[in-house]
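Methods — Computational structure assignment.
A single polypeptide chain was analysed. Its primary sequence is given first, followed by the predicted tertiary structure written as structure tokens.
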Amino acid sequence: MPVTHHFHQLDVFSSIPLLGNPLAVVHAAADVSDDTMARFARWTNLSETTFLLPPQHPEADYRVRIYTPGGELLFAGHPTLGSCHAWLMAGGIAKARDYIVQECGIGLVRIRRDGSRLAFAAPPLLRSGEVDAAWLQKLHGDSVFPATIFCNINGSTTARDFAP
């Protein structure tokens, strides 16, 4: 008989239904294979689908794996908050009173809890600097086009134009 898993579909970043970022969260997914996680993420066809697992790091409250229809991500913002919310809704109890520690592909992320609101500080960058035109060409092929990238750093918005 197939094993079943509970999952929630959440609306992250909005208190108004259908106006936030959708997220599927699969609970108690320790027995779900990498291939099944990838297939389920493709099936949901959402920008991200997460899988909640027992932590491996002693300081973490739980562990999460984040998938898109195209593959696994080490970290992403709305899956971090949505997964934490789903974990708490399912009865998760944090080791600390005011924060939750989520373990993911980039390490530990501390999520602050203020009533029903959740927030986190962005983790350190894994990579920074100029975007190489050859790398963009390899990544996007002929679909590369001029763009403006906006970055919010410490409350200051920076815009940068680039074209390969």
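Note: Residues 77-89 form the longest helix (13 residues).
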